[in-house]
Amino acid sequence: MRNPFLIGEQIYLRTIEPNDLNEEYISWFNDPEVCRFNDHHRFPMYRERLEDYYDSVIKSNSAIVLAIITQGTDEHIGNVSLQGIDLVNRSAEFALIIGNKFWWGKGVGREVGRLMLQHGFENLHLHRIYCGTASDNEGMKKLALALGFIEEGKAREALFKNGEYRNLLTYSILEHEFSF
């Protein structure tokens, strides 16, 4: 394990490091399947753009973006974040991307989500953590509910992806609803 920040059973989370900015990482954001439900695939990703993103992440006072690393092999398989951190209203948005498709459906999202929610509520003293997803993103909807998020509402035709409008579902969890 290299510089772990939060440790789970099959993964650990650490800050994104300069040597993570490799071709595999870039390929996640150019893969239409990986980016099927997010905004990353609107413009091509290339090294300079990824470096700009990295620079913004390490300078941010309103986001914690962590690399998801497999235990044992130290492979960077995705990123997770609490972003838009608002310490006055004590809220933040949860976001996740697992770029390595081998790890899809293996419980990584749930493990990562629990680690980030616990960190947000215990260490950042947040009151509310929220997320949103396209209405046809079954994986994220299932993950949100498994983590204890409550569906709050629907923004009708708020997302335009692959030539059609989709509804945006919003979810949140409050600190007293999360069990550590």
From TrEMBL:
Which branch of life, at top level? Answer: Bacteria
Q: Which InterPro entries match?
A: Acyl_CoA_acyltransferase (IPR016181), GNAT_dom (IPR000182)
Pfam families named among the record's database cross-references: Acetyltransf_3
One GO MF term, please?
A: acyltransferase activity, transferring groups other than amino-acyl groups
List residues of the N-acetyltransferase domain.
11-172
Specify the protein name.
Answer: N-acetyltransferase domain-containing protein
Provenance organism: Candidatus Magasanikbacteria bacterium RIFCSPLOWO2_01_FULL_40_15
